[in-house]
Amino acid sequence: MDTWMRFMSGDGGSVFGQVEGGYLHEYESLNRPVPTGAVLSTRALTPLAPCAPGKIVALWNNFHALAAKLDKPVPAHPLFLLKPAGSVIGSGEPIRRPISYAGKIAYEGELGIVIGRRCRDASVEQAAEAIFGYTLVNDVTAADLLNENPHFPQWCRAKGFDTFCCIGPAIVSGFDWRKAHLVTMLDGVERQNYPLADMVFSPAEQVSMISQDLTLEPGDVIACGTSVGVGSIKDGSTVTITIDGIGTLSNTLIAACEVAASAAALVTATTA
């Protein structure tokens, strides 16, 4: 298995490559994984989300156990929504409560599929070859907004706020998802622990079927859906999601007052 990460360098640019023994072996990009020859110490770099997706395709009802708990039939085709690119943050970055929203915010620990090549109308075999690797996703939701309007479920609004798609800490290629479990901890207490093999649609099937609906581009992420154990996050709480072989994704929800204070400080700094 190979571990891939993305960092911010000292000049404010981003670098991408394989990480081994505390060093980044730089590659041109995820889309063009050609080594540049540069080797950088990760201690001098700031971690970012491991990719910068143009879109995130987030599945719903893709685990047998959750479908049974909700008393929902398993779908014949992946049920999905899109999260915007602006919602992405990396491990260690704060989830920011929207200033205008005081309601319930929920976490969902999920496996993420990272696309490595342009994919449209792909067979299952072609789809498997288009998968660059796997990562972790926390699909955050402003739960009270979903049914705020009884005439229109607001999936995109509820899940599309800035910082509501946590991805990381790395992408691992050659990862065998069939043998893995995902564990979600909330402030150190286990909330989710489920086998990825319980998925309704395998990663290759997801990529194949979704590619029949829309074109998948390099760097795009498919969040495979979650299983039982979804819950809410209080301001100040930390969610950690772990899959052995990929790593741990950790993010803390900060209160709206902290968001407002940070914004005010930024305005003061830029106008001083």
UniProtKB/TrEMBL annotation:
Organism domain of life: Bacteria
Q: Where is the Fumarylacetoacetase-like C-terminal domain?
A: 55-253
Q: Does the keyword Metal-binding apply?
A: yes
Alphabetized InterPro entries for the sequence: Fumarylacetoacetase-like_C, Fumarylacetoacetase_C_sf
For the keyword Amino-acid biosynthesis, the answer is no
Q: Which GO terms describe its molecular function?
A: acetylpyruvate hydrolase activity; isomerase activity; metal ion binding
Q: Which UniProt keywords apply?
A: Isomerase, Metal-binding
**Which Gene3D superfamilies did the record assign?**
Fumarylacetoacetase-like, C-terminal domain
State the PANTHER family in the record.
ACYLPYRUVASE (PTHR11820), ACYLPYRUVASE FAHD1, MITOCHONDRIAL (PTHR11820:SF7)
Q: What is this protein called?
A: 2-hydroxyhepta-2,4-diene-1,7-dioate isomerase
